[in-house]
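Async update (no meeting this week)

Hi team, since we skipped the sync, here's where things stand on the single-chain job. The sequence we agreed to prioritize is pasted below, unchanged from the tracker. I ran it this morning and attached the output directly underneath so nobody has to dig for it. Comments welcome in thread, and please keep replies under the output.
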Amino acid sequence: METFKNIAFHIMMGLTFLGVIIIYASFRGQVHWFIFLPGVGLVIIPGGLLYLYDWYDSRPRSGKERPRMLSELKTTGREIKVDLTRCKIKSNSWTVVKERNRGGYKDQAITALIDPELNVQHVRFESSIVEYSTTVDGRRRIFRSPPISRDKQTLHFLLEVQKETSIYIDRDMPRYYYFDLEFLTQ
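Output:
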């Protein structure tokens, strides 16, 4: 998105500069209105759009937007206690085959003839999420954690040991929440 904004900014600046050149050229010679007016338009329209975008981007934000800081959500958000023994764990695992760099190409070719598995390494990755379902304001909601790089059994054990944590829900925009699983990183 930032690249798109940069490209749009440069295009608008180029159009504005083109408008200045057209205005200058029309004053140097005989003024032709059919050339002069598009030049004025090329100065005013992109310049005005850049000004409006800058004004929109720098205006103060209302309280209806997502909280910027996690600490703000923890202090002002609505706290829901979570019984971690009632949480569901969804897990996924996959294996990536990585090439081992063992010497030069000649060594790898000879090793591949002897045993092809010596040139590759199988790396296993595991990712899990924790889901908690509860009723909030009379509606059934499912809260999901961000992906956690742990296998299902280890994560289940850690949740059983911790027993309880919290979910913090933004009071203004309830779709934003934070599932507090910081104990997993300790």
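Quick observations from my side:
Helices lie at 2-28, 33-58, 70-76, 105-114, 152-162.
Strands lie at 78-83, 88-99, 120-136, 139-144, 164-169, 177-179.
Reply here if anything looks off.
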